[in-house]
From TrEMBL:
Keyword Signal attached: yes
Keyword Chaperone: no
Protein name (database record): Extra-cytoplasmic solute receptor protein
SUPFAM superfamilies registered for this protein in UniProt: Periplasmic binding protein-like II
InterPro entries: BUG, Bug_dom1
Endpoints of the signal sequence: 1-22
Keyword set, alphabetical order: Plasmid, Receptor, Signal
Family note: Belongs to the UPF0065 (bug) family.
Length: 323
């Protein structure tokens, strides 16, 4: 009899739990959503988080608060997500660096990008750009290589995540030159130091550099896409400048903590996918020079896995080992 009562009580608890969960998913969200950005304000990732966070919040009927947690190649922001409940109220704006590059170039990574995080939706991708100060004698990729080899010391190259550092190392390996990576927490300070001549070069997201490029305050030596960028048709690609195997893009995506219920993840994903299909999103991407990457959760995970395989090959070709 006691066993039967215990069994009935357990069934009742499970039924109640399922009912509470169903109500939670149906009513989600009932309060503001937090979007964590593992980079400083002013970067391409930060701009995307603010725009798509606002659009997502509008579709869900709740405000979205963006919180910048820069540092340690994205580890600080990811740890903040891991410390939050798996309830959909904390979303990470992640990029290719913490999701696909860190596992390849960093030892003892305190998170597993495939097991600890769950994709919500891809957002966009953009090519990188090699920048130099406006007064730099470097005007072409050939100038860059010659200058690096003639000066007798490594180039000082600014980057703000492992993905950009890997992009710089890949090119340096192909061109047979040396550089010293100067790490930053975000793109804004890199732009300031390129303008001021504190850096020989920077490898950054093109979207975050468009305004300064059009104002003539910095110079683009080359872009890293398969083809030239539509907004800068006179800037060549690395690929056409003597390095046919070189092409590199950065991308951003929303993630939640692993364990977040599928129905809540799907609700977030639907809101983002709706925003990505709007004319307003097309207009936003046009200002940033990016392309849409509207992968739903399953497709985003598959894309992430392909990117990890690609970056593993790039690291091997560049002789880069985990540190």
């Amino acid at each position: 009899m006691n066993t039967r009562r215990a069994l009935l009580a357990m069934i009742g608890l499970l039924t109640l739990s399922a009912s509470v969960h169903a109500e939670t998913a149906k009513e989600f969200p009932s309060r503001p959503i937090r979007v964590i950005v593992p980079f400083t304000s002013g970067s391409g990732s930060d701009t995307s988080a603010r725009y798509y966070g606002e659009q997502m919040g509008r579709a869900l009927g709740q405000p979205v608060v963006v919180e910048n947690r820069p540092g340690a190649n994205g580890l600080i922001g990811i740890q903040a997500l891991k410390n939050a409940p798996a309830d959909g109220y904390t979303v990470l704006l992640a990029s290719n660096s913490p999701m696909s590059v860190n596992p390849i170039v960093m030892k003892n990574l305190p998170y597993d990008p495939l097991k600890d995080l769950k994709p919500v939706s891809g957002l966009s991708r953009n090519m990188n750009v090699f920048l130099v100060p406006e007064k730099s004698p470097i005007k072409t990729v050939a100038d860059l290589v010659a200058h690096a080899k003639d000066r007798g010391k490594p180039l000082a190259v600014g980057t703000y995540s492992a993905g950009y550092q890997l992009a710089a190392a890949w090119f340096a390996n192909l061109a047979g030159l040396q550089f010293v990576n100067v790490p930053y927490k975000g793109q804004a300070q890199i732009m300031t130091d390129v303008i001021g001549g504190q850096l020989d070069m920077a490898v950054v997201d093109l979207g975050g550099a468009i305004t300064l490029l059009k104002e003539g305050k910095i110079r683009a030596v080359a872009v890293t896409g398969e083809t030239r960028h539509r907004d800068f048709p006179n800037v060549p690609t690395i690929k056409e400048s003597g390095y046919p195997d070189y092409a590199q893009y950065s991308w951003v995506s929303f993630y939640v903590r692993a364990g977040t219920p599928d129905d809540i993840t799907d609700k977030l994903a639907t809101a983002v996918q709706t925003a990505l299909k709007s004319p307003e999103s097309d207009a936003f991407l046009a200002t940033k020079g990016g392309d849409p990457m509207p992968y739903p959760p399953k497709e985003m995970r598959q894309f992430q896995e392909r990117e990890m395989a690609r970056f593993r090959k790039v690291a091997a070709a560049a002789g880069i080992k985990p540190e």
